[in-house]
Structure formats: C-alpha cells, structure tokens
Amino acid sequence: MDFIERIAPLAIKYMNQEGILASLTLAQAIIESDFGRSELAVEANNLFGMKANSTWKGAIYKKRTTEIVNGRTIDIESNFCKFISQEECIKYRSTVFLKTDRYKPLWGVTDYRVAAQTIYECGYATDPKYPKKLIDVIEKYKLYEYDQKTTHTPEKEESNAMPKDDMKGHWAEKELKKAKDKGILKGHQDGSMRPDEPVTRAQIAVILDRLGLLD
C-alpha cells in the first residue's frame, strides 16, 4: 500500500540506527493514524498518537481522546505533539520518545511479537488488546519482512545517491578529509560522506570514543 511504502524507508532507517523494529513502527503508524488519515496525522503529522511529554519542545495539538483507566473508558482532552512532517514524527519517536528509560526494555528486541507486548507493558497504550492488534497488522501486511532490511534507501532511488566524492567543493572539504583519513569519521557503504547529513547521539558517542575522550 502507498502509505506503507512511503514510510517504510524511514522505519528501516531508524531501526538500523536505534534498534526499534521497523515492523513495530509501521504497525503502530497504521493503527494509530488509520494509514495516515486520522485527525492527528492530517492536522499534526502525528502518526503515533504521541502525547507531548517533557521531551517535546515543539508545537502542541489539543485533542479529546479516549483512555481506559482501571477498566473504565474515559474521555479527556490531551496535548499531542505537532510535527512539521511525517519524517520528523518518525525521527522523534525513534530517537527521543522511545529512548527514555521507560522504554528501555524495547531497545534491541528482534521478535515483533515480543516487541508488541513490551511496548504495551511499558505503558505506550492503555488498551489490553493493543499487543494483539499490533501483531495482527504486522502479520496481515507481512511487515516483519521489513525487519530484515539493512538499508533505508529504496532501489529505485539508487540512481539518485550522492557521488562518492561528495566532499569535493564542500566548504569543510579539508577538515572532512582529515577526519576521514584519521578514522574519526567513516563514510557510507557507497563511499560517500554525505557531509550535511544530521548526526545522531549514537554517532556522536562513537566519534568521541574514536578520539579517546570516553576513556
């Protein structure tokens, strides 16, 4: 389906970077946003029903929602994260929202069934049927196949990949080459450096370790 194909590359990308299964990301997006058609998805680019907690510093979208508390269904108004794009939404979920201690048991889980149960037990949703709903969607659309992917670049986009000499002419060409030669920075599998690509916390930690600053 178009929705799955559109966000799958991002789900795979952040699975490889942060250890959150792509199948779980896709299944949650499908359930929480109704394939990108929900009010939150359309008005706030929020595909996962993420509420604005202390880690969110951006815009807010207010919406009434149904919660299950002590077996009772209640209706309350909640503050949700409002994103500039769906990509920002997926990135925030993978690199910030699910990277708090609350969701630590989810990190690195490789079985989608375990991941579905774990994210519920961590308190992501209040519906006790949530794990089964996730598993049903994953198996219906064979989303587990995305968990085997190792690259977030679709084949049809390979021709648009950046050239291997993408440092040439860059304003920091000299410094980039020095960093690469000393092994501080490493390029991508295609040989490119992609000098303007954002750096994650994990990548910063690796760089600091290469510099010997973590010893």
From TrEMBL:
Alphabetical UniProt keywords: Hydrolase, Signal
Record protein name field: Glucosaminidase domain-containing protein
InterPro entries named among the record's database cross-references: Glycosyl_Hydrolase_73 (IPR051056), MGlyc_endo_b_GlcNAc-like_dom (IPR002901), SLH_dom (IPR001119)
Domain (SLH): residue spans on this chain: 159-215
SMART domains on file: LYZ2
Organism: Cytobacillus mangrovibacter
PANTHER family in the cross-refs: PEPTIDOGLYCAN HYDROLASE FLGJ
Signal peptide: none
Claim: Kinase is one of the keywords in the record: no
